[in-house]
Specification:
The structure holds two protein chains of two kinds. Chain A is an all-beta fold. Chain A is built from no helices and twelve strands. Classes of the chains: A mainly beta, B mainly beta.
Chain lengths: ~110, ~120
């Protein structure tokens, strides 16, 4: 079965610290991978996507992710987080005709 | 305004009632999706549609019905609402198959969500 696993349900971090949100995908999922962000009471918006080419993908708001085929991972990183980055982050991958989402990671940034 | 809109944003209904959640997109995207979001489960696909008059079940379709008579609309109906269907529902659309190909953009665009409470 297709699956995307987010290893941490919640990640607390202090402002200006680096952060990594982990995502692993099953090999049956297509190698099209995405990270979405959901701010409180809002829908999801795309942070970045990997379709092909360079394995290091840069997205909006200073986030980047690295596609690692050998480890079947697509971890999201930011070198210095802001309070405004507090949100839920979802990793997703493409299965046949549909997106498969992970269960989400809540990033909590405190002063 | 271009985009994808859901209505209503909030809905309270009683057990056993039929309720329909609306979704409208202005991009003429071929693909549309309905997800429900629940704590601990992330987003789970209910139904999706590859084009008008073509729909298919997702991961959790029981108790839901969809239709797609027009490309831009994809309503979700709960035939007889149950408390377990209390959730936040998201509609999404995508220009091409999420599997990509053909040079189309593959990411999905989401509506603002509908918070449904079944009492």
């Amino acid at each position: 079965a297709q699956s995307v696993t987010q290893l941490d349900s919640q990640v607390p971090v202090f402002e200006e610290a680096p952060v990594e949100l982990r995502c692993n995908y099953s090999s049956s999922v297509s190698v099209y991978l995405f990270w979405y962000v959901q701010y409180p009471n809002q829908g999801l918006q795309l942070l970045l996507k990997y379709l092909s080419g360079s394995t290091l993908v840069k997205g909006i708001n200073g986030f980047e992710a690295e596609f690692n085929k050998s480890q079947t991972s697509f971890h999201l990183r930011k070198p210095s987080v802001h309070i405004s980055d507090t949100a839920e982050y979802f990793c997703a991958g493409t299965g046949f005709q549909k997106l498969v989402f992970g269960t989400g990671t809540r990033l909590l940034v405190s002063p | 305004d271009a985009g994808i809109t859901q209505s209503p944003r909030y809905k309270i209904t009683e057990t056993g009632r039929q309720v329909t959640l609306m979704c409208h997109q202005t991009w003429s995207h071929s693909y549309m999706f309905w997800y429900r979001q629940d704590l601990g489960h992330g987003l789970r696909l209910i139904y999706y549609s590859a084009a008008a008059d073509i729909t298919d079940k997702g991961e959790v379709p029981d108790g839901y019905v969809v239709s797609r008579s027009k490309t831009e609309n994809f309503p979700l109906t709960l035939e007889s609402a149950t408390r377990s269907q209390t959730s936040v529902y998201f509609c999404a659309s995508s220009e091409s198959s999420p599997r990509g190909g053909g040079g189309g953009r593959t990411e999905a665009f989401f509506g603002q969500g509908t918070r449904l409470t079944v009492v």
